[in-house]
Write a structure and sequence with these properties.
Elements lengths: L17 E5 L2 E4 L4 E4 L2 H4 L8 H13 L11 H13 L4 E7 L2 H18 L7 E5 L8 H6 L17 E3 L10 H18 L3 E6 L3 E2 L5 E2 L2 H13 L3 E5 L14 H4 L5 E4 L11 E6 H5 L20 H16 L2 H17 L6 E7 L2 E6 L8 H7 L2 E2 L6 E4 L7 H18 L3
Parallel strand pairs: 3-15, 5-6, 5-7, 7-10, 10-11
Antiparallel strand pairs: 1-2, 2-3, 4-12, 8-9, 11-12, 13-14, 14-16
Helix pairs in contact: 2-10, 3-10, 6-7, 11-13
The structure holds pyridoxal-5'-phosphate (PLP).
The site of pyridoxal-5'-phosphate (PLP) has 14 residues, from helix 4.
């Protein structure tokens, strides 16, 4: 029997069963069809069963589906590493593959901590992160994530670093609004630079923490301060990467390059679990030496799995060939227009950026019955706490997107139990 994620199994009723998918449509065993409004945990950016991705996968499977990367290499991995270096912010030249976003974050943190010890600094192993952040479910990833239902059971064994406030005022915040958060960051770095290895943030949008959007000014300041106080800057773009915020990578909003960047989820368009941790040459060079002692001791079995690499490469080509950033602009405009007319006294905030739209309400009970309602209406949407959000596949049609938002509107206007 399956043990389902984030689920109190005692209360679990039978779950809808998917049997096939095409485009944004999920086909269920009972004959229902649903529009996927959240790209299956933000990964399925091209929709289901994309012909070009299916071909890439099958062609690679006919050659070889797996080969260990220890002591061997292969072309799909080499080509994908090259493609990632080309499309990510300039300065990230070295690619370490792994099998999930959480592990990609672990690798980033290992890189940062070992970077300092390789350079002869002892004691620089704490991490600065942001309140409300989420970086995955493995232990070190939980440690740099804010306390939440995801990590609460383990809070006594997590060795926390420094958890700081995110800047107020959203994407377009004024310098004055962002300043208190920058000052807090500077105080923390100034007081503890001898203990701190890195700052890790989800740039621009904290997704799983409820889609809080903050200013690129903060990221620019974090870049300057990390250099001033000698700590590394890590961007976790597992959720924001590959166009989700309207730029190919959220770092581009700030026009800066972190020292280390993690990508996952949409990397393989939902076909296979995979992630990559990219590092600057400065970081990479610190691992060069004559002994194992300074090498990066990590190597997941499925790192650079050839099927994952082949599908990721084809996915990147599609993003470029099909001009997805233009599509994302249209999605953004439709969300903005439709959210404009969505009103309820229960709504406390609406946040939109790129192909993300989030609506925050007074408390999570507002959405207690929403999931069932959404399925009955033919859409797949899952609130996170007191936020309902859409993060659709980029191939979504206008009428499908409007339907998603209409279901949310109907919930507020007609169906919300009193
Ligand atoms: C920003 C961020 N980092 C890391 C992760 C963890 O990724 P995975 O679920 O692939 O381990 C997530 C997952 O939601 C995420 O949103």
């Amino acid at each position: 029997m399956i043990w389902y994620p984030y689920t109190q199994m005692k209360h679990l009723k039978e779950l809808p069963k998917m049997v096939s998918g095409k485009g944004v449509q999920m086909n269920l065993e009972d004959g229902k069809t649903l529009i996927d409004g959240i790209s299956s945990w933000w990964a399925v950016i091209h929709g289901y069963s994309h012909p070009a991705l299916n071909i890439a996968l099958k062609e690679q499977a006919d050659k070889f589906s797996h080969i260990m990367l220890g002591g061997l290499s292969h072309q799909p991995a080499i080509d994908l590493a090259d493609a990632l270096v080309r499309i990510t912010p300039s300065g990230l030249n070295h690619v370490f593959f792994s099998d999930s976003g959480s592990v990609g974050v672990e690798v980033a943190l290992k890189m940062a901590i070992q970077y300092w010890s390789n350079k002869g600094y002892e004691g620089k192993h704490k991490v600065v992160s942001l309140k409300n952040g989420y970086h995955g479910d493995t232990f070190k990833a939980m440690e740099v994530s804010d306390d939440s239902d995801f990590s609460r059971s383990f809070s006594t064994v997590l060795h926390r670093g420094f958890m700081l406030n995110i800047p107020k005022g959203g994407f377009d915040a004024s310098p004055e609004e962002v300043l208190p958060a920058i000052q807090e960051l500077e105080r923390t770095l100034a007081d503890h630079q001898d203990e701190i290895a890195a700052i890790i943030v989800e740039p621009i949008v904290q997704c799983a923490g409820g889609f809080h959007i903050y200013s690129p000014l903060y990221l620019q300041a974090a870049r300057e301060l990390s250099e001033k106080y000698q700590v590394l800057l890590i961007f976790d773009e597992v959720a924001t990467g590959f166009g989700r915020t309207g730029k190919l990578f959220a770092a581009e909003h700030a026009g800066i390059c972190p020292d280390i960047m993690v990508i996952g989820k949409a990397l393989t368009a939902g076909y296979l679990g995979h992630a990559a941790t990219l590092a600057s040459t400065e970081v990479y060079n610190s691992f060069l030496g004559d002994s194992y002692q300074t090498a990066l001791m990590h190597g997941p079995t499925f790192m650079a799995n050839p099927l994952a690499c082949a599908v990721a490469l084809r996915s990147i080509q599609l993003i470029e060939e099909e001009q997805y950033l233009e599509k994302i602009k249209c999605i953004n405009q439709i969300i903005l227009d439709q959210f404009e007319n969505l009103r309820s006294p229960l709504i406390t905030d609406k946040r939109v950026i790129g192909a993300i739209g989030a609506i925050e309400v007074t408390d999570s009970t507002v959405f207690a019955q929403f999931k069932t309602f959404a399925i009955d209406q033919g859409v797949w949407l899952r609130p996170i706490g007191n936020v309902i959000y859409i993060m659709p596949p980029y191939i979504i049609e206008k009428n499908q997107l409007i339907k998603l938002i209409n279901v949310i509107r109907d919930w507020f206007e007609h169906f919300l139990p009193n």
